[in-house]
């Protein structure tokens, strides 16, 4: 049983780490919040410490803001749909005894450990190149005309690249959930004459509900900050500019730190709203 002295000692030992962590999180956020109310353009030598909510009004009233919100929602929704659907199918496949099962599982999970920049470069130069890309050779083999993915289907291209990166994560979580399913339920349903589709729909899928919710929660939080893939492939053109990339353009390309900071605060607020909503959904699912 912890005494008052031991509790105080534990708090004292944790204090340096907690202080460092809070400083690491709060100092950048505080500076961003401060600059969001200022007119700060360093290359032009402009610094007005207080302009009220002008940066917020200017950022949200721009047509680029709503386009970026829409592009972000499309990307996140499409990537979640692809990774969850294919993740379930791959998890069901990997759960079956097959030759070289361990090697296959490692190969399936491997893309998750590839850095986003490297992944985007590989897909851009090796897979989607309109002349020498693998997909172009596949198109020619079947008699079809290759096309420039990043120019003619830029949004779809980024969705495919990011989905390829996050599919192993979804597969791993869902595979773990499937392996925790009691096999006796499936055997009993099979003995009762239930076809495979009904066994999946009424037994496996409900069992995966919690795992699917966790996958959606974690992926959504990270996918709201998609940046590297866009920067390497399309640089925000052709309708692929997300909210994160719009903030980057306002800060670095336009050199308007105040406007970019306002966009960053807006992005943080929106991300927290989504996270709170998803956390409540996860809590209800776990309590069910």
Automatic annotation (TrEMBL):
TM segments?
A: 12-37, 68-94, 106-123, 155-178, 199-228, 257-279
Q: Which organism is it from?
A: Jannaschia seohaensis
Recorded GO cellular component terms are: plasma membrane
Q: Which UniProt keywords apply?
A: Cell membrane, Membrane, Transmembrane, Transmembrane helix, Transport
Domain ABC transmembrane type-1: residue ranges = 69-278
Q: What is this protein called?
A: Sorbitol/mannitol transport system permease protein
Q: Which family does it belong to?
A: Belongs to the binding-protein-dependent transport system permease family.
Q: Which Pfam families match?
A: BPD_transp_1
Family annotation (PANTHER family) = ABC TRANSPORTER PERMEASE PROTEIN (PTHR30193)
Q: Where in the cell is it found?
A: Cell membrane
- Which domain of life does the UniProt lineage start with? Bacteria
- According to its record, how does it sit in the membrane? Multi-pass membrane protein
The organism that produces this protein has a lineage beginning with: Bacteria, Pseudomonadati, Pseudomonadota, Alphaproteobacteria, Rhodobacterales
Q: Which BP terms from GO are recorded?
A: transmembrane transport
């Amino acid at each position: 049983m912890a005494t008052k002295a031991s509790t105080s000692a534990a708090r004292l030992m944790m204090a340096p780490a907690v202080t460092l962590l809070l400083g690491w999180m709060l100092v950048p956020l505080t500076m961003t919040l401060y600059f969001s109310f200022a007119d700060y353009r360093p290359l032009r030598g402009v610094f007005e410490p207080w302009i009220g909510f002008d940066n917020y009004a200017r950022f949200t009233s721009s047509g680029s803001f709503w386009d970026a919100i829409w592009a972000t929602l499309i990307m996140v929704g499409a990537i979640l749909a692809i990774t969850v659907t294919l993740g379930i199918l791959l998890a069901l496949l990997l759960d079956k005894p097959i030759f070289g099962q361990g090697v296959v599982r490692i190969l399936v999970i491997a893309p998750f450990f590839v850095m986003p920049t490297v992944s985007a470069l590989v897909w851009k130069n090796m897979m989607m190149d309109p002349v020498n890309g693998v997909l172009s050779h596949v198109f020619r083999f079947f008699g079809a005309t290759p096309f420039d993915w990043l120019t003619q289907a830029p949004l779809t291209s980024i969705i495919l690249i990011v989905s390829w990166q996050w599919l192993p994560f979804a597969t791993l979580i869902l595979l773990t959930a499937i392996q925790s399913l009691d096999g006796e339920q499936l055997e009993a349903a099979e003995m009762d004459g239930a076809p495979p589709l009904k066994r999946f729909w009424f037994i496996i899928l409900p069992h995966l509900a919690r795992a699917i919710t966790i996958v959606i929660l974690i992926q959504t939080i990270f996918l709201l900050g998609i940046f590297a893939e866009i920067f390497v492939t399309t640089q925000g053109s052709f309708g692929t500019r997300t909210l994160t990339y719009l903030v980057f353009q306002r800060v670095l390309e336009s050199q308007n730190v105040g406007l970019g900071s306002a966009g960053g605060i807006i992005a943080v607020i929106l991300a927290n709203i989504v996270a709170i909503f998803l956390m409540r959904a996860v809590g209800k699912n776990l309590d069910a």
